[in-house]
């Protein structure tokens, strides 16, 4: 007999994934806020050459984009892991009830 996840199990999984997403968002927000603060208060610093002839503004901006992609990959990895663990626990419960 196949047993579907209960609403409570789905809710717990959704909360776990939401908590991860919000945590990663705030990590990105701090990094992005640093870029905005530099642009507002130390804009001349953004013109400084830092990497292969690129200025800080371009380097920081590209870094933010790459960092966002990395955070997306991390989010996907952990959400998939959470779902796999929930499925494994569900399968163990099914196996034990036979």
Overview features:
2 strands, transmembrane, transmembrane helix, 5% strand, DUF485, mainly alpha, DUF485 domain-containing protein, 98 residues, two-stranded antiparallel sheet
Helix content: over 70%
The biggest sheet amounts to:
2 strands, antiparallel
Assign an overall shape: elongated
Gyration radius, in Å: 21 Å
Structural class: mainly alpha
> Please, how many helices?
2
Whole-number count of domains: 1
Strand content: 5-15%
Mean pLDDT: 89
What is the straight-line distance between the termini?
8 Å
How many strands in all? 2
Organism: Sphingobacterium faecale
InterPro entries: DUF485
Transmembrane segments: 20-41, 53-78
Keywords: Membrane, Transmembrane, Transmembrane helix
Structure description:
The model has no long low-confidence stretch (mean pLDDT 89). A two-stranded antiparallel ribbon has the order 1-2. The protein contains two helices and two strands; from the N terminus they run H-E-E-H. With 98 residues, it is mainly α. Helix 1 runs antiparallel to helix 2. The protein has one domain. Helix content is 79%, strand content 5%. A hairpin with a 2-residue loop joins strand 1 and strand 2. The termini are close together.
Write the layout of secondary structure elements.
Layout: H1 7-41, E1 49-51, E2 54-55, H2 56-97
Antiparallel strand pairs: 1-2
Give a quick summary of the entry.
The chain is mainly α and 98 residues long. The chain has helices spanning 7-41, 56-97, and strands spanning 49-51, 54-55. The chain has one domain.
């Amino acid at each position: 007999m196949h047993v579907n996840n209960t609403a409570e199990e789905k809710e717990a999984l959704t909360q776990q994934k939401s908590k991860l997403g919000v945590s990663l968002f705030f990590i990105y927000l701090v990094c992005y806020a640093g870029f905005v603060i530099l642009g507002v208060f130390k804009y001349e610093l953004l013109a400084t050459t830092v990497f292969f002839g690129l200025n800080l503004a371009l380097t920081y901006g590209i870094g933010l984009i790459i960092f966002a992609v990395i955070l997306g990959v991390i989010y996907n990895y952990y959400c998939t892991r959470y779902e796999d663990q929930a499925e494994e626990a569900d399968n163990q419960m099914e196996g034990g009830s036979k």
